[in-house]
Design goal:
This protein has 243 residues and is an alpha+beta fold. The chain has two domains: 2-78, Glutaredoxin (3-Layer(aba) Sandwich), CATH 3.40.30; 86-205 and 228-238, Glutathione S-transferase Yfyf (Class Pi), Chain A, domain 2 (Up-down Bundle). Helix content is 52%, strand content 6%. It has helices spanning 14-24, 37-47, 68-78, 86-110, 123-150, 165-180, 182-188, 193-203, 206-212, and strands at residues 2-5, 28-30, 57-60, 63-66. The chain has a four-stranded mixed beta sheet, with helices on one face. Strand 1 (2-5), helix 1 (14-24) and strand 2 form a beta-alpha-beta unit. Helix 1 packs across helix 9 and helix 6 (165-180) crosses helix 7. The radius of gyration is 18 Å and the shape is globular.
C-alpha cells in the first residue's frame, strides 16, 4: 500500500502524483483526506529520518519519497510509466522537470512578490507578471512541447505510442492553465494542435476518465497553483503563440 501525503483541499502539486497513481492502477491512500490525516502528515514531516521539505511525499516500502518529480521518477520506473533504459528514463525526467518549471511560473503569475502575501497585496505586480507569462513564456514552453510531439513526425505521446508520467503531467498543466486563463488559452491552443490532441487523448484513457469523473478528483480553486482571477486573463492571450 502506498500512502500519499498532500493537502486535502487542493489539487496542487499532489495532483501530478495522483494522476500517475490512478493511471497505474496502484492501491493508495490519500492520507490527509482521511480522519486524522492532517495530523499524521505534519508528524511525518517533523519526525521522518528523511524529512520532506513540503508535501507531496509518499511512504512506500519503508521509504519516504519527496518532491513531485522525484516521486514520479520512482513511480515511473516501478509501475511502467517510464522507459526501462537509462537514457529514456532521464529524458522523461527532463521533460517532467521542464513541466515543473512552467508550473512554478504559472504559480508566480499570481504571487510574483511573495507567497506569504495575499494576491490582493500584489495585484499590480501580478498583472505585469501575468502579461509576460501569457505573451512570451507560454509560447516558449508550448513551442518546445509541441516540437517534441511533432518530431520526427506527429505522435500520440511524448515518447511515441507509449504513455509516460510526463504525458500525464503535461495534461494536468494544460488543464490548470485552461482553468486559470480560459480566455487566453482559447486563443493559444489553436496554434498547438498536437498539445490539444494529447490533452484529449489522456483525458479519454479509461482509468483517467474514471478518476476525473469521481469524487477523488478535487476541483480547481483559488488556493492552489492554478488560480482564476478574471483581471489576469487578459487580451494579451490573443497574441500569444505562433502566427
Amino acid at each position: 500500500m502506498i500512502e500519499l501525503f498532500y493537502w486535502p483541499t487542493i489539487q496542487g502539486r499532489g495532483e501530478f502524483v495522483r494522476l500517475a497513481l490512478e493511471e497505474a492502477g496502484v492501491d493508495y491512500v490519500d492520507v490527509a483526506r482521511k480522519p486524522g490525516g492532517m495530523a499524521r502528515m505534519i508528524a511525518a514531516m517533523d519526525g521522518a529520518d528523511h524529512p520532506s521539505y513540503a508535501p507531496p511525499f509518499l511512504k512506500a516500502d519503508g521509504m519516504t519519497i519527496g518532491q513531485t518529480s522525484n516521486i514520479l521518477f520512482w513511480l515511473g520506473q516501478r509501475h511502467g510509466l517510464a522507459p526501462q533504459d537509462e537514457q529514456g528514463r532521464l529524458w522523461v525526467n527532463q521533460i517532467q522537470l521542464t513541466i515543473a518549471d512552467m508550473v512554478a511560473e504559472a504559480h508566480d503569475s499570481h504571487h510574483p512578490v511573495a507567497t506569504s502575501l495575499y494576491y490582493e497585496d500584489q495585484r499590480p505586480e501580478a498583472k505585469r507578471r501575468t502579461a509576460d507569462f501569457l505573451e512570451t513564456r507560454i509560447p516558449k514552453f508550448f513551442d518546445w512541447f509541441e516540437g517534441i510531439l511533432g518530431r520526427p513526425q506527429p505522435k500520440d505521446y511524448l515518447l511515441g505510442d507509449t504513455l509516460t508520467y510526463a504525458d500525464l503531467s503535461l495534461f494536468q498543466l494544460l488543464e490548470g492553465l485552461r482553468y486559470a486563463f480560459p480566455h487566453a488559452l482559447a486563443h493559444v491552443e489553436a496554434n498547438y494542435p498536437l498539445l490539444s490532441a494529447l490533452r484529449e487523448r489522456v483525458a479519454a484513457r479509461p482509468r483517467i476518465a474514471a478518476y476525473l469523473a469521481s469524487e477523488r478528483r478535487l476541483p480547481f480553486n483559488e488556493e492552489g497553483i492554478f488560480r482564476h482571477y478574471p483581471e489576469l486573463d487578459r487580451e494579451e492571450g490573443k497574441r500569444a503563440g505562433k502566427g
